[in-house]
Design brief:
alpha/beta; 10 helices
Amino acid sequence: MLLLGSGLLTGCQTVLFGGLNASTGKTHVLVQRDVVFDPGHHLALDVYRLPGTEHAPVVVFFYGGSWKSGKRQWYRWVGEALAQRGMVVVIPDYRLWPQVRLDGFMQDAAHAVAWTQAHAGEYGGNSAQLFVMGHSAGAHIGALLATDAHWLDAVGMQPRDLSGFIGLAGPYDFLPLKDPDFIDMFGSTHEAQLRSQPVQYVNGDEPPMLLMQGTTDKIVWPRNAQSLADQLQRKGEPVELKLYPDIGHMAILFAMSRPFQAKAPVLEDTVSFIQAQVAQHQHAATASTP
């Protein structure tokens, strides 16, 4: 069973993430803040990149918070960490429960990815090298985009338009539900709840995936990543499963920040995965050229 902590982020969250943002120090990263991608729902995003960036891989990062909380501004340190490694990084809003349920936040995520594909070039990104990444609930959202084709189909895309998915401590196989909040989010019947499970949609048409998981995570149990990896392998899909000893649910995310990078090679593994997928695509494009 999956244990999801409803109180994962508390009243001190602004201070916590503010400290991580401050830990980045002075960087050369450019930030375009509050770029509206869905005026109807008042949703915006922030874009991070280095000056002079051209044709760079693009990463859309979805933050976690049990689908109930979170702000893109808290994750500037994630955007800057990846941007300093040559990526164009997009961190979007999405509506949260109880304002919306599964369909609402998934539609928001799909629109954010479609906007990024359409506008990546304006920020020095390459829309043909588009990655989705997330932590916890954000990893769940990204995994559903990469497995259940109907979310991206609604915005004129498909999972194979993604160059890869990168999940940190994501819930991918977490039935049955017991928490009333999650039952309200995902449905009161087993049939309805299955719509929320990325493992249910693996059909061999997924992008490559990197699944990262701490072995001592007590919020999202490691079996979630293992289950999704097993399903992908059965379908012959490329997947890397990285298990980090003695790393918990938030520690795997914090390992991307400057103060905690020595705890686990999360940032290096992310960058290596992206670079490997880009190199593979470039090689395939070269081989197909007459």
